[in-house]
Amino acid sequence: LLWGAEEPNYRTNITDTFDIKIATLRCHKSQIGDNPSTGLEEWLRERHKMLAQGEDYELAEAFYRVELRR
């Protein structure tokens, strides 16, 4: 799975783990700087809602799935 692809072809439900994702990001100043209240949670929630459009869950993470065949 490749994250950040322009045309993702695989989505996974992160509705139940979104709060853990936010808490984890807040632990890493390299990801959010010194001010954890910069609107990060709201921005990510809207982005993950958009990625879940058309699915039967609220929030999604999107990837490009590469299948390797032997």
Shape by Cα distribution: globular
Q: Compute the gyration radius: what is it?
A: 14 Å
Helix content: 25-40%
- Largest beta sheet: strand ordering: 1-3-2
Could you report the average pLDDT, rounded to the nearest whole number?
89
Strand content: 15-25%
Order of helices and strands: EEHHHE
Figure out the total of helices: 3
Task: Give a quick account of the main beta sheet: strands, pairing sense, barrel closure.
Answer: 3 strands, antiparallel
Domain unit count: 1
How many strands? 3
What can you see in these coordinates?
It is a single chain. Helices cover 36% and strands 16% of the residues. It is of the alpha+beta class and 70 residues long. It has one domain. A three-stranded antiparallel sheet has the order 1-3-2, with helices on one face. The longest helix has 12 residues, at 40-51. The two termini are 18 Å apart. The model has no long low-confidence stretch (mean pLDDT 89). InterPro entries: LmbE-like_dom_sf.
Summarize the structure.
The protein is of the alpha+beta class and 70 residues long. The chain is 36% helix and 16% strand. InterPro entries: LmbE-like_dom_sf.
Question: Which terms summarize this structure?
Answer:
single chain; 70 residues; 3 strands; alpha+beta; 3 helices; LmbE-like_dom_sf; three-stranded antiparallel beta sheet
SSE map:
Layout: E1 2-3, E2 10-13, H1 18-26, H2 29-32, H3 40-51, E3 60-64
